[in-house]
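Supplementary Methods, section 5.1.

A reviewer requested that the exact input to the structure prediction be made available. We therefore reproduce it here, unchanged from the version used in the analyses.
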Amino acid sequence: MNHRNIRFLLKQCIAVMLMLVLLSGLSLPGYAAEKPKAAPAAPAATVTVQAGKKKTILIGDSRTANLRQVRNNGKLVYDLIQQDGSILWDFKWGAKFFDLAATLIPRLELSGLDTIDSRTTIVVWMGFNDVVGTPSATVNEYINYYNLMTALWVARGARVYIMNVGPAGRKTGGMTKRQKENYKAQNKQIRTFNRKLKEGLSSQAKYIDCYAYLMETDYATSDGTHYIPVTSRGIYKFILKKTK
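The structure derived from this sequence is encoded cell-by-cell as follows.
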C-alpha cells in the first residue's frame, strides 16, 4: 500500500471517528426525510481542497442551494460539495440537523480534513427545516453541536460564522389569509429559535443576523420557503460583507 492510499484511509478513519464522537453526545430523534420538490438530488461531487489557499465554506440546506443557484447561471443542484474558486459549497436539499451531523460535516471533513486553517472562513446556515417541519433536533442540540465544531475549527485557525434562520412567507403572486397566518406563526417560531441560538452560541463563533437583514431590506419567496433570485443574491452579498 503506497503513501497516498495510507493517507486516504487515515482520513476516512478520522472522519468516521469524529462523526461518532460528535453523535455520541447528542440525542437525535427520528429523522423525517423530505423529498426534493423538483428533480432528484444529484450525486455529491468529489472535492480536493488545496491547503494554504483562502476560501469560504458555505454549509446549509436548500436555501444555501438557492445561493449557489444565482451564482451558477440559474442552475439548481440539490446535493453538492464542490469548490467554485474561493467558495466551497456543502449543502443538501431538505437538510435537517441529522443531515448536518451525519452527512454535511463528515463529508466536508473527509474532503478537507487537513485544509481548514487560518485562511478558512466557515459559514453555517441551518435550522429552517427543523423549526417549521418535523424536527430532528432542538435548538439546544444545534447550539451544543455548533459550539463543539466551532472549538475544533477555531483550534485549526478558521473563522466561524453561524447565520440564523431567515423569515418565511411573502410569496410572489400573493397569499391567502390562511397562508399569511401560517407564515406569521412560522416566523414567530423562527424568532424564538434565533433568540435562543444567539444566547447559547460560544463567543468563538460570530453570529450573522440574516433575519433582521431581510426584514430591513425586504425579501420575497417563490413558495413561502425558498427566496427568489434577487433575495438570494442579496443574502450572498450580505454574507460576503459580514465575513470580510
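The beta strands are 55-60, 79-84, 87-92, 120-125, 159-163, 206-208. These observations are discussed further in the main text.
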